[in-house]
Amino acid sequence: MAVGVLILCGAVSYFYYRESTQGTPSASPSESISINLTITPTPTPTSSPTGITEPTGTPIKDVIPRCYLSGQITYEGGSFLHIDNQEFHYSDLYDPHDIINWSISPSGEDFSIGPNRASGLKLGSGSDFLTISFKGLVPKHDTYLLSASLDYVATVNGGAKVLNEKCSGTTKLIIKK
C-alpha cells in the first residue's frame, strides 16, 4: 500500500510541476469581430393625459386634420392687439411635420404669418395666436383677410401622399396708420 501512495504522490507532483513551469497561456485572438448595428426608430403610441393612446409622428389613415380661424388682429403703433378670440384652432393634428400654409387677401405683399409647422404646436387639438411679421415693409392696405390650409401626409392606396385641407373661417387684420 505504501508503494501505491508513493506512486500517487509522484504522479500528482509530476503534473503539478509540469503545469507551473509551462507558464500561463496568453490570449491572442486570431480574428476580430465587428458588429454593425443599424437602429430604425419605430413610432410608438403615447398616452395622453386623458388616457387615450394617440399615434406620434406617423401618417394616420382616415384621419384628416381640421382647422379654423377666428377673430381679428389690429396693428397700431408697432403693436398687435388680438380681438374676438383671435386664434388658429386645430384638431386631429398628429404629425409634427405637417405644414400650415397662409394666404393674404389682397395678395401681393410678403408678410410672414405663423404658426407655420405643427412641430411648434401641442399635437392633437388646441389653438394658438397668430404671429405676423411685415419683414420691415409698410403694409399697403388698411384691411387684410388671412386664411390657412394644412399640408399633411396620409396613406393613400398603400403609399404616403401629401394632401391639403383648407381651414374654415378667416382672421381679419386691420392696419391703423
Question: What attributes characterize this protein structure?
Answer:
177 residues; mainly beta; Immunoglobulin-like; seven-stranded mixed β-sheet; two-stranded antiparallel ribbon; 1 helix; 11 strands; 11% helix; elongated
Can you offer a commentary on this structure?
Helix content is 11%, strand content 43%. The chain has one helix and eleven strands; from the N terminus they run H-E-E-E-E-E-E-E-E-E-E-E. It has one helix at 2-21, and strands at residues 46-47, 53-54, 66-76, 79-93, 99-105, 112-114, 124-128, 131-133, 143-156, 159-166, 171-176. Strands 3, 4, 5, 7, 9, 10 and 11 form a seven-stranded mixed sheet that branches. A two-stranded antiparallel ribbon has the order 1-2. The longest helix is centred in the first third of the chain and has 20 residues, at 2-21. The radius of gyration is 36 Å and the shape is elongated. The N and C termini lie far apart (123 Å).
- Tell me which CATH architecture of the domain at 57-176 applies here: Sandwich
Contiguous low-pLDDT stretches (5 residues minimum) are 25-30, 36-48, 52-58
The major sheet is characterized as: 7 strands, mixed
Kindly report the CATH topology of the domain at 57-176.
Immunoglobulin-like
Determine the structural class based on helices, strands and strand pairing: mainly beta
Structure annotation, total helices: 1
CATH class of the domain at 57-176: Mainly Beta
**Considering DSSP H and I runs of 4 or more, what fraction of the residues is helical?**
10-25%
Distance between the termini: 123 Å
Q: How many beta-strand segments?
A: 11
Sketch the topology as an H/E string, one letter per element.
Answer: HEEEEEEEEEEE
